[in-house]
Amino acid sequence: xxxxxxxxxxxxxxxxxxxxxxxxxxxxxxxxxxxxxxxxxxxxxxxxxxxxxxxxxxxxxxxxxxxxxxxxxxxxxxxxxxxxxxxxxxxxxxxxxxxxxxxxxxxxxxxxxxxxxxxxxxxxxxxxxxxxxxxxxxxxxxxxxxxxxxxxxxxxxxxxxxxxxxxxxxxxxxxxxxxxxxxxxxxxxxxxxxxxxxxxxxxxxxxxxxxxxxxxxxxxxxxxxxxxxxxxxxxxxxxxxxxxxxxxxxxxxxxxxxxxxxxxxxxxxxxxxxxxxxxxxxxxxxxxxxxxxxxxxxxxxxxxxxxxxxxxxxxxxxxxxxxxxxxxxxxxxxxxxxxxxxxxxxxxxxxxxxxxxxxxxxxxxxxxxxxxxxxxxxxxxxxxxxxxxxxxxxxxxxxxxxxxxxxxxxxxxxxxxxxxxxxxxxxxxxxxxxxxxxxxxxxxxxxxxxxx
Length: 452
What we know:
four-stranded antiparallel sheet
C-alpha cells in the first residue's frame, strides 16, 4: 500500500489538474468551459435555447461531472461575455443574488466567440477523453480563456490565479511579441471592472507577463457624496462579509442599491463623521486587496507549470496559425479534386460523343482501349504542411476513377455538365495565394484585433 498510494494519488492529481481545476496552457480554458463553449456552438449559436438543454447536452456528450458545476460555469460564461443570457442570471451586491434555475433561463453563444473561436474547430486534434471526442483546444487567435474580466482561479494540487484581459490588450501584446522590436516594451494591464490597479513594487505587471508570477494592488471604485460613501466595485474573489460584520464597530449603516453593477451606500450613524477618514479606513481595511498572481497552467499530459502570459499568447497563436493553414490547404485540395473530377468528366464526354457509348460498361471498356495508346494523367500541385513546400504530383486516371464519377451522376447529366476549367484554375490560384500568405494574413488579423 505504501508504494501504491503515492502512484494512485499522483494519477488522481494529474486527472484533477487536467480535467477539472487547471486551465490549459494553450487556450487558457478549463475543460468544463471548453465543453460548454463547444456545446453552445453546437446547439445555441444562432438562437436562444433553454439553459437546461445546453447543460443536458454537455452532460451527455462531454462532461459527466454533475449539472451544478456545469450551470455555475455557464453563469460565469454569461457574466464574462462569452454567451448572451436571458432571464435572471444573478446580480452582485452585499450578498450576491444567485441565478434562477436552469429551467428558467435561456442563453446563446456570443457572435464574437463564434467568429473568433469556431471557424477552424475542425482543424485541431480531437480526443475521446471521457465520453465523445472533443477538441484538445479551441483554435482562437488569442487564448480565449484569458479574454474577459477578473481572474481565473483553480485549486487542486496547485493554486492558480491568472488575470483576464480585453481582446485589444491581448492583441496589442501579441503584436509586440511577434514584431520583437528591440528597446521597446508594450505593457498591458488586466481588466478588473470597477477597480483600479497599481504596483506596490516596480515591474510586477511585467513579471506576470513574462514569468507568470507577480503581485498587484487592486482598489475598488467608489466616491464620496455629501452625506455618505458609495462603494462601486469589488476585488475579484472577495466579499463584503467582513465589512458587514464590523458595521456596528465602524458605526455605519450599509444599504444595498446595486443593480447590474455594485452600488453599496455607506451611511455614518453619527452626524459630523469625517467621510474622508471613514472612507480611507473602509478602503484600506476592507476593500483594497493584494492579489498574488501565479499563472499555473496544465499541459496535455496533466503536468502543471507557471507560464507567463507571453508564453500562452505565442503558444496559442502558433497553433491557431497552423489550424488556419490546414484549412487553407484543405480548401485548395478540394478545388484540386474538383478539377480532377472535371477532367474525368471531359474524358467521359469525349468517349460518349466520339464513340457513341451510352452505358457505363461501354465507356470503361473504351477507356481501357484508349489507355493502351495514350498516357492519360494529370499533374497537380501539392502542399506539404510539415515542410511548408509545394511539389508536383502526377495523378493517373484509372478505371475506378471513371466508374466513381459515372456512379455519381447519370451519363446525360455528365454530358450536359458545364465545364469551366479556367474558373477552377483561377480559384486554385487564389487558394494557393491564401496558403502562401497565411502567416502574413494571420498577423494582419491580430493587428486588426488591437482596436477591439
